[in-house]
TrEMBL record:
Classification lineage: Bacteria, Bacillati, Bacillota, Tissierellia, Tissierellales
Organism, as annotated: Tissierella carlieri
Protein name: Uncharacterized protein
InterPro entries: SAM-dependent_MTases_sf
Superkingdom of origin: Bacteria
Amino acid sequence: MENMREYRMNFWRHKTNEANRGYFPTSLEIVKMEMDLIDFGEINDGSILNICDLTGGIGEQLNFMHEYIIGKNLVPNSYYNEVTKERYGIAQSKYGSIENFNLLNSDFFNLKARNSNNKKVFTIIRNNPPYGDFDYKGINVRMEDIFFIKNAEMQVDYGIQIFELPIHQLIEDKNLIRRIFYRYENVHIYSFPKPYFDKKQICVIGAKKKINTNDIELAEIWREKLINNSILSLDEVGTPIIKLNPKAITNTQPIVLYRDGKVTDQTLSRGFDAVFDSLVRETTLTNNDNSDLGLKTPLIEQLPGHIALDIYSGQYDGLVGDVLIKGGVKKGTKIIREQEKDVITTTEVEVVYPFVEITSSNGQTLIKEYSFSNDENETA
């Protein structure tokens, strides 16, 4: 109990420390020790792995992992994300030309990643989240907690997550350590070596379960080890302790979507184009004659360009194969401001803007519409 009291006191002192909110990139020596924990022996040469660091700083750690995996005669597809433009710019200049190294500047919670089937896309996840409290959808949560959950949601079954966080978080927050053991198996926890332990960080590594199951007793055993300071340091391990399961490679599919999911008219239009293409492709694959999209035939035949114009203007109403496209327009108000010397005249003009609703034969629906916002008000 004395150890617990000591950690509790340190915890409250630590809460006001900069480590809770700062940017603390991991030393590459630590990254190597973490990667050395993984046994790649059952993975065939040339196998493809999707690896990521979605709070990637300037990208050094993910780049090290990228080169490490190449050294194992495997093929990494690396996915980096960083919310700050400054760090992203550094990573872009250093690693932007590397083959299969994908970079994104996005809020972690807006990020969209998926393959053709689902959102479980990453084989190995590196997760060194910000430390601190966070208002998530009106609820106060710890960043370490919500970043772990969101990363786990993108992990393929049997994939490996390397999770770095302050030791006090697993001691004080029973729910977090239980969530880890609920989602991951073969979990091991190691402290950073003393020269790197100034932020009281630990490394949690485990393999994603195919089916989540409670393992509260094991979580409590590991929590007691943390309280009693009876865990090994990374530099005391020396050999791999977790095998990458070949099933994780089987579950790793090409990522077809990796982008900022923040909704703007530009991303909405891109999304419209992508989904419309997929709906048309779905239709053509089910038709015996792929040249016949089932378009209604007017007196004067429309070429694809004419149909596209009709769709985007909200004037098209009919079938494209098995896809139903229904267009229309809505009314809105556009504000025009005119200034002559110090006199500003404001005029409101009624406008109409198009929308289109697309429904596939399996019930998938997409609605795209365009409206005038205050940012688009004209000044004469």
